[in-house]
Here is the input.
Amino acid sequence: MTEINNQIVIIGGGHNGLVCASYLAKAGKQVTVLEAAGQVGGAAITREFAPGFKVSAGAHLLFMLDKTVCKELSLESAGLSFSQQNMTSTALAEDGNHLMIAGDSLQGANISSADQAAMKEYRRFMNRFAGIINRLNNRIPPRVGTKNRSDWIGLAKTALDVRMLGRDDMREFLRIAGINIYDILQENFENPLLKGALSLDGVLGTNLGPRSNNSVFCALHRLSGLQGMAVPRGGMGAVSNTLAMVAKQHGATIRTSATVSRILMDGDRVSGVELQDGEQITARTVVSNADPKKTFFDLLGARNLEAGFARRIQNIRMRGNVAKLHLALDGVPDFNGLNQNQLADRLLIAPDLDYVERAFNHSKYGEYSVKPVAEISIPSLHDDSLAPPGKHVLSAVVQYAPYQLKAGWSEEKAVLTDKVIDLLAAYAPGIRSQLVHKELLTPVDIENEFRISGGHWHHGELAIDQFLMLRPVPHSAQYASPVNGLFLCGAGSHPGGGVMGSAGRNAAHAVLGAKDIEGENS
Amino acid sequence: MSQINQDDKVKPIDFSTKAHYLTKAFRSPFYSRQEPLNHLKEWGRWADYLSPHAYTCSGIEYFAARNACTVFDLTPMTKYHISGKDALPFLNRLVTRDVSKIKPGRVGYCCWCDDAGQVIDDGTIFHLSENTYRLCSQERHMDWLMTNTLGFDVLLSEETHNVAALALQGPTSCATLKRMGLDGIENMKLFDIRHFNFEDTQLMVSRTGFTGYLGYELWIDPEHAEVLWDRLFEAGNLHGIKPMGDEALQMLRVEAGFIQAAHDFMPANATIRTGHTRSPFELGLGWLVDFKKPVFNGRRALLEEKKRGHRYNLVKLDIDGNKPGCDSYVFTKNKKRVGTVTSATWSPSAKASVALASLEAPHGKPGEELLVEIYYQKELKWSRVMAKARVVKEVFFDPPRKRQTPPADF
Amino acid sequence: MCDSMPSSKQPQNRLAGNYTREPESVKKYDAIVIGAGHNGLTNAAYLAKAGLDVLMVEKNSYIGGATASRELHKNWIYSNASYVSSLLRPEVFRTLELSRYGLQIVPYAGGNVTMSEDGNYIGSYVNPDVSRREMARISPRDANAKVRFDRDLMRQCRFIRQFMLSTAPDPTSFKPRDLMGMLQMGKALLDLGEDVIYDMIRLYTMSISEYLDEYFEHPLIKAAKAGSGIIGSAMGVMSPGTAYVLLHHAMGDVDGTMGAWGFARGGTGAIARAMKDSFEDNGGTLLTGSGVEQILVKNGKVAGVALENGDEYQADIVVSNMTLPRTFLECMDQKDLDPEFIRRVRNFKIRGSSGKVNMALDGLPEFTAFEGNTELITGDMHVIDSVERLEIAYDDWKNGTWSKDPYLDILIPSLTDPTMAPPGKHFMSVFVQYVPPKVNGKDWTDDQRDQFGQTVMNQIEKHAPGFKDLVLHAEIRTPRELENEIGLTQGNIFQGELTMDQLLFNRPIPGYAQYRGPAKGLYMCGSSNHPGGGIMAAPGANAAREILKDIRKPNTVPEGWADD
Here is the structure.
């Protein structure tokens, strides 16, 4: 048994755990990060999936990494760089008449001038509204209905942010924040390809279809990084490795292949953790980067919680609905109508709103989409560290693929893999002949590989009822759990998923007991 | 009040078929014996069962309980069976007191709270044998108990309808049971459980009750209910045994200072209005809260409340005059309204108007003088008195025999 | 595919803004109310009661709008559209003296029953013990969880009820009245306490299906409860936002019994008739068969109305009980309106999702599942057994057709109200969800309407063999009929969907949630306005209160909702 006093143990070396460790170490705390896998990063890793082929196995695009975190931890000077930035999104059309979306400008697909004008206005108000969420990202959520001054200040700040939109935008914000992106897109646009592509902002990574209310909120959350899409050089793992380096520079200890099997209690507070091999590490403070269900049920044990709280944890909706496809290709795939430059864009298969809605319908009944939607990236085009010369990797987020598949994943996985490749072949007919290797991660695989209950990337469905002071559940939304000394720092906490780092940063401040933690940029 | 067709036979209780709706209220397994004794032919309802308000006259039944002994049908009381390797930790997390102190063969009074530290219900835990418990309560709690099983290896089932139960209460109750052949009954201490061979089955006896006097509760399978009743009355015949209804029980329990869900507090799981629930401290049940346990439902909130102070006090009031102060407001001597009476009765034993009242803290210290606003009616003329009242510490009826072992025979 | 989806994007604009015609007759009233639905009648009655000279114009030959009862088959009275009442505010009932004009609301004895395909059912009974036991028959845990469910729902009902019979404050306004209103709302919220506030956010944003998952485990029980989350709504049980619709159906009461529903004796139209009598007794004038061609505006002020028959009436106050799109896109010169306002009206969500089949029956149908039980047939009857089945019904609607396996709310009012059908015969009212405003993007045909009716009858026949032989006459109403006959745009029964974006200060559209239209003297009093649909009379009453305030008359309209 290792005796270390007053140290802080962080369970899980995902990006939020590493961010949290960096801040705590920077503040002079003795921090040990325990990561179960052989490398840090959690779902933000780069790993080999075929000899010589590497891919960002979890998240594959970076667009939310918090600017305050970047700046405060000096990530760029620590070596974080990008192979692509401000990526254009290309909505693929089967006939090759694709639509390029770069910020608020549109090209191709016979886009009308009305749509072009509407796009400018759409981006304007969506970015303004996303700004409100952006300002929430770096705050410890206030509680509602308490008498605490800090809670009231927190609420007042947000109320003021909304007020500052001005009367018209405020009205529009209050109207649309809770509803569905289908209606908003129908109100604003004509072009089906455009509407299909934009609807993905509201539904990627969720259990929502475009017509489901809450999808506008999800879109705003997704846009709340207020930055373009980017691909880190070396894949997503580069972000995690940089974070790990920063944490170590500040004095944190990082142990990999150290699987925590349970959180230890002494009376009514945590006293440390026990590893799978039986090693016990004492700590007065344990911060968990694991998802809330794993933290409270698997590691702490429901019996150490009060029952009402345990019920809330049990009710967290966190069933993944996304599969991840990785292809190793022996050449540049040939997509109809795309040159090699355009091929490096973020490619979207979501030809129209109803296509997306129909894809979603299946998942309601425990089936995967017969015709899925996909977000595709071919990072090797700009980063030769990922594939052997002349060869390429294709990474695709594929929706919808429910965690609880009625037919079970063991046999259906191969069928879905084929279906998705067929889908790609409709746009890139030669792709099958280029295949060197294929890998599909179903939500069950994601659960197993990344140790996320339910295989939900965001450690919990991103929804208004699971956001801010309700994330993951009331009474642990301020990062401190009801168990003394136990904190949460993962995506299951506010502000949620996406490689953002804010949850880790906020949690560190909660651990340090800081009152006002707003960064300069927020 | 429900009218009963005399020809109907006692039917076994069957929930599983659609036809259950034809039964408008269940009959206790003792019904065939209760019915002829129910001279008033009035039935109240208790948890879907017919339950007599009184058989003849609640006053007479009250005195029988204080002077001889009475039989009260407990069958409708909610009963849960809890077993399995985690039964003890399960209960310890559920209730506020330390259940490990309730040894096998013993009964303990307890209350349980939600996370906010508000009382859901109070009840009794019967430690039947190692890892096997019975939890008895006024209200039903399957939802909350099932929620509580998460993370525990326990088996939980409701056994309300599988156990017939009678309370035998009063000074001659021990003598009656002795005469019925329960050897060694006199050696049972308060809160003891014993099993006796009875006919071809087992009779479980606990020295427990809701009257604040010597008394026992008898637990048996429903098939033997009628024979138990018969044998009990046969044995009690020389000891003044009488059946008793709910009205007399209410008088007895208020005298004894026992609180009851939906009378003296609202069960937190069913309370709609914010602030209408109570914590254990606010019900005088602070002694049931054991903070030495590292985790139990409501612990954090109750710790917080200990620091902050609680909002209400549930107290016993001794009210001047002879008008029962039901549903009355309570005022300070300066006419400031500070609470309400939750239960009240004329205490024939103490010859006093007594009540339980919920007062805003800090009011309610023993000895505090208060006023109770009582409205009463004589021959349709209404009058109002502001009766003086005192907060008292002791219960209104507390004879030594309650705890004596062996108890005196009469 | 996309074009076949019901959409509010393309309204028909009958008037291209070039209405010119010489008036044929001119009389000036203090106020003109358009549309003799129950909200219009309520509004008109209060204005008349306050001493105004009020003209009410109604396009149909009968009154009531969706609150009508008509004898379409000899000796049978149908409640043609709305068919039960729970939300009608007793304050309105009392102050308009509806009892004096013959109105009786009778609660129906049965609760409701949901029948599953395998012959089981979950029923509820007047006796609460039997009801609890019935639930325990299927799931003992759920029977107990219902206590918690009812508690949580009732907490939210008590909160929202406070704001029904009053005007919603505008959060973007700095007027003292709005600031006070927001403060009051904030205080009411804080009084609930932290956890109840959290529960509120969750209830308002979750889907009914997910919300129910937090309480119940049995699919049939969930299905039985989920129906209330979609009635009249263009959402599925799995759509976030449907949990609130449940609240809308639970917050009413009959004589203080929350969540209870009743029949108006003589059919729903009896409510409108009593209101009309109250209106006329207070000196109001009613013109039926008088559809409005255009609301006239001069110099930014309303001037009166021009009827389709060429008559014209003047008034400084015009109140529209028509839906928002019908009022502004069909009955006004578009030049009188700001383009931004028009855009917002066009974006108002008012998709129809329900139909109605009213039938005269030769006798009482026998539902196999009941096995002789005569208590269950008096209340609402549903045939559904899982939330998935309900959701599939919604998928049909999204795909532009009526549900092939629809959700039905079946009632036989004649079992409670002897005036509805001859003795021994019965009137059956069937509310059907989902029914799209258009079929595959095209207008309904009569043939399709009849096919839809058959779908519904077959569904009942499955559970009550021989039922179809009892049908003497049927009135089948798709959204087309609801729009053409009653004027409900796209057949939406609530005059606009009850979603977050269209509630309280957002209803019907932000900035116009206080019953005032964009022209001076123009008001709106229909269910398109806060607090929405159902026979509640609150929009009509609230609008009347605002009008009286603007013309500085003493308020005679009740306000607020006393709960203890």
About this structure: Chain A touches chain B through 18 residues (CB under 8 Å).
